[in-house]
Amino acid sequence: MAGRRGSLGLTSMNHISLVCRSIEKSRDFYQDVLGFFPIKRPGSFDFNGAWLFGYGIGLHLLQSEDPENTVARKREINPKDNHISFLCESMVGVEQMLKEMKVEYVSKVVEEDGIIVDQFFFHDPDGFMIEICNCDQLPIIPITDITHHQSTTIVGANCSSSILNKRQQQQHQLSNSSIQVASEDHHDQSYLPCA
């Protein structure tokens, strides 16, 4: 099995499934607000749902069997709650769009070693948390050596949407341990692809 010790040999994330009160409202939200697009769903399923795709990942919306009792609507936007996060091209543009669409959101700022990261948190129609951020400004610094489980310092590479395919190739190479890691004892400038 390929991958790191203890790994299941995974190659990528495929999809996220969300149980919804209303497939139509959730589909519209993920299409209109986040830019996902509908894709064909197997006709053999015996339950209502919709499949969407965007940003290299699938989103499977599943109709709740008991919409009023099985999906709890969250009222408070809590950035420490379960959420999925998306990178964006412009935080200013995102904030303007959220305001225009009248989407209630919470804004947070993280500062680490002089790097400022902006975050917007908001809910989908069922209360599932979404984050939009510019987190790609933070370097990815593993706590341990990927191949030898020793302490390391890795120079992180910033990611952008234009290098998504290259990232996926690098992640595959990483899982096969073909990337060099800069050790604390060395001043090697090898780069780790963004995860």
Automatic annotation (TrEMBL):
PROSITE patterns: VOC. Pfam families: Glyoxalase (PF00903). Residues 12-135 form the VOC domain. InterPro entries: Glyas_Bleomycin-R_OHBP_Dase, Glyas_Fos-R_dOase_dom, VOC_core. Residues 174-195 are annotated as: Disordered. This is VOC domain-containing protein. It comes from Stephania japonica.
